[in-house]
Amino acid sequence: MAKYVGYVGTYTKQDSKGVYQFTLDTDNKELRDVKLAAELENPTYVTVSDDDQNLYAVTKQGENGGVTAFSINEETGELTKLNSQTAAGSPPCHVSVDHGKSTVVTANYHTKNIASYLTKEDGSLNPATSVVEHEGTGPHERQEKPHLHFAGFTPDENYVIAIDLGSDRVITYAADHGKLTQVQVFNTPAGAGPRHITFHPNQKFAYVMTELSSDVLVLHYDEKDGSFTEQQTISTIPDDFNETNDGSAIHISLDGQYVYAGNRGHNSIAVYKVDQDSGQLTFMEWTSTEGNWPRDFVLDPSEEFLIATNQKSNTMTLFERDKATGKLSLIQSGVHVPEPVCVKFIGGA
């Protein structure tokens, strides 16, 4: 068993001051030691490099938005700011880094663009190499323009995938030393409002969470050309749930056996079993997040636990996860974190 250091990206519209740090104690099965790790404006989404040496956070600086790089103290998990790269306009809403920590990409909900940044040896950021602005609309009232909600790498890292909630598109870019070139477009059902994507470990399937229609789209992924083909659509909420629900995050277990999808409104995580041959999903259960508006969640490095962040109730919730069945059991709720959005871990200590 171990203790794992985690980080929470937050809004700073009320009481939050930036990026928060906490500890998951797997012996005592509890979240503890929540503290401010870095003072930053609206670092809503963060990501950690594979070598656990750097954290990247989206950020707002005055009238500019962009991304900030930090170094991580390997013993304490403390963050030290390296630098920021910003431009005029609202901050991005998503950030990813490739396995080799050579390229960081961001997606911007408000400015309609994705951007890529090459990194320096210490993990700090060079100015943007590519900035791609999108066009398009959708039938929903919230689809009046492009709203880029995700930018991240395919498992083979030959491509960057951009998810546009505003125009119902999953867009594939070839990535060459940070330069982004569009090569494929997958159109989701009209009004679906795609938000996030996760890939099966076998690299043949991908799962897209839709925010507006509250569905998971099961896609076949062709790694040869970066294209997608729809295989299945499955709802994330009960048929008789008639209140507002915004789909949030989607994640898959490392063994590819279970997919988890978050619901803001229904305030739950939907659990699905994956058919390993077809990639299709079978619904298993809903688990309440014991809070309001679960913006994100994460499996810990051991995948024996899952932590959900409830934005509107300012809390984190800890679940124990049965690796054999995929099911979640509540352990701890009401752990205070102000305005939490996303949560990420570094490796075990």
How would you characterize this protein structure?
The protein is mainly β and 349 residues long. The chain has no helices and 28 strands. The strands form 7 sheets. It has a 4-stranded antiparallel sheet, with no helix packed on it. A hairpin with a 4-residue loop joins strand 13 and strand 14. It is globular, with a radius of gyration of 19 Å.
Question: Keyphrases for this structure?
Answer:
single chain, 349 residues, mainly beta, four-stranded antiparallel β-sheet, 28 strands, 59% strand, globular
What would you call the shape? Answer: globular
The SS-based structural class is: mainly beta
The amount of helix comes to under 10%
Low-confidence spans: none
Reading the helices and strands in chain order gives: EEEEEEEEEEEEEEEEEEEEEEEEEEEE
Main sheet record = 4 strands, antiparallel
- The end-to-end distance, rounded to whole angstroms, is 10 Å
Give the mean pLDDT.
Answer: 97
What count of helical segments does DSSP give? Answer: 0
Tell me the Rg in angstroms.
19 Å
Strand content: over 45%
Strand arrangement across the biggest beta sheet: 3-2-1-28
Number of strands: 28
